[in-house]
């Protein structure tokens, strides 16, 4: 199973194993990772699953869709070039070891 690390704004890292094909958001929410809310359930309609993907792990991720791009303009924390919606990233074995930073605020 792919391994994902969520790094909190405090620097605390939470490492977990995700079922292949699940989204970053689902993996975080089902494991109680602080700071990932996932209010809309993964419909790209709330932006409360905002994460910053570390540049060294950005390769091979799905492209940002138009819906995701629009929602990324609505994030509470600043949008950067590393910003993604966790619910729009399906985790595959090729993403094993991915590290993402959790923003300081989501709502
Ligand atoms: S869970 Fe709502 S946009 Fe990702």
Automatic annotation (TrEMBL):
GO terms for molecular function: 2 iron, 2 sulfur cluster binding; electron transfer activity; metal ion binding. Residues 2-106 form the 2Fe-2S ferredoxin-type domain. Keywords: 2Fe-2S, Iron, Iron-sulfur, Metal-binding. It holds the Pfam family Fer2. Its cofactor is [2Fe-2S] cluster. GO terms for cellular component: cytosol. PANTHER family: FERREDOXIN-2, MITOCHONDRIAL (PTHR23426:SF65), FERREDOXIN/ADRENODOXIN (PTHR23426). Belongs to the adrenodoxin/putidaredoxin family. This is 2Fe-2S ferredoxin. It comes from Zhihengliuella halotolerans.
